[in-house]
Amino acid sequence: MSQTKIDVGMISATGTASSSTVLKGNGTWGSGSPLEFVSSTTASDSASVALTGIDDSADTWMVLIEGVNVAEDAKEPWIRTSNDTSSHSYDSGGSDYAWVFNSAYGASTTSYNKFETGDSKIQMGQDANYPGNDATSAWSAKIFIHNPSVTTYHTILTFDFSMQGTSQESHRTFGTGQRKAAEAVTAVQFLMSSGNFDTGKFSLFKIKHA
């Protein structure tokens, strides 16, 4: 028996049909999953990488970072945020952020922790927890941005960061950062304390609760 394909344009449904959407039971085109890909960018000798488009369509947003190689040895990975809706600037005042992290690394059995109650960035590591810049070294991370559109309290970010260190030992750093302003976060920026990202992929996802 022959079969005839139906042109999706003939289906009456809200939303946009594409190769990344499915027709859901409520008559809308969507991802069909609570985890929805938003955008990605690949670093190439980049001073910083920004991901925009964060809005009130999800309560939790996630950034996955894979295979980052850095230009300079022994520098700190940083996060900054923006509340602009179009041309983004990233807040860098001396008391715009607070953060805390805990680390463990292969050269020592001792964990390491650090915190700041007022800073110009969210910091994901410090001596001796630095990523190396050897050709075979890379770092990856997972960052959650919690309730970024809510303006009644400060936006919280949590991060889990794995790397090869300056001597190619294994490191892991996990912690929490806080944007110290009761305003919406619409974009996030990643950079090093000095030097560029030679390579690395940065991807933004939204996680829906329903």
Shape: globular
Main β-sheet, spatial strand arrangement: 3-14-5-10-11-12-7-8
The tally of beta strands, per DSSP, is 14
Largest sheet: 8 strands, antiparallel
Name the poorly predicted regions: none
CATH architectural grouping of the largest domain: Sandwich
Gyration radius from CA atoms, angstroms: 20 Å
Task: Domain count, please report it.
Answer: 2
Helix content: under 10%
Give the ordered list of helices and strands.
EEEEEEEEEEEEEE
- CATH top level label of the largest domain: Mainly Beta
CATH topology of the largest domain: Jelly Rolls
Instruction: Tell me the structural class.
Output: mainly beta
Measured by DSSP, the beta-strand proportion falls in over 45%
The overall pLDDT, averaged over residues, is 88
Total number of helices: 0
Report the end-to-end length measured between terminal Cα atoms.
40 Å
Question: Could you walk me through the main structural features you see in this protein, from its secondary elements to its overall organization?
Answer:
With 210 residues, this protein is mostly beta strands. It has 2 domains: 1-32, no CATH class; 34-207, Jelly Rolls (Sandwich), CATH 2.60.120. 0% of the residues lie in helices and 49% in strands. It is globular, with a radius of gyration of 20 Å. The relative contact order is 0.30.
